[in-house]
Amino acid sequence: QVQLVESGGGLVQPGGSLRLSCAASGSISSIYAMGWYRQAPGKQRELVAAFTSGGNTNYADSVKGRFTISRDNAKNTVSLQMNSLKPEDTAVYYCRSLMYGNGRIYWGPGTQVTVSS
Question: Are strands 31-39 and 46-51 parallel, antiparallel or unpaired?
Fold first, then answer.
């Protein structure tokens, strides 16, 4: 029903910046909420930033003040601006959508972010 594709990942030095984008296609009108998650090697997938169903935003404590989630409804995209990157931010970053009605969750394939000197 919905396809999600992330872009913008790559290798960046500590202190640098990256901007990730998630493009959604398919049944866009059925999307209830969207957000970004990440999974580092050997760790559970965790919330990075998300829009709540009420239109507010949630951020992981570890990224507050450094990351900003935004959306462009006209382009059906959700972005994550990542500043002051740290090696601990290294992970695969996933775009996630929550659907109306059935409550199904869709994930993008992920994009690798590596923060290293």
Answer: antiparallel
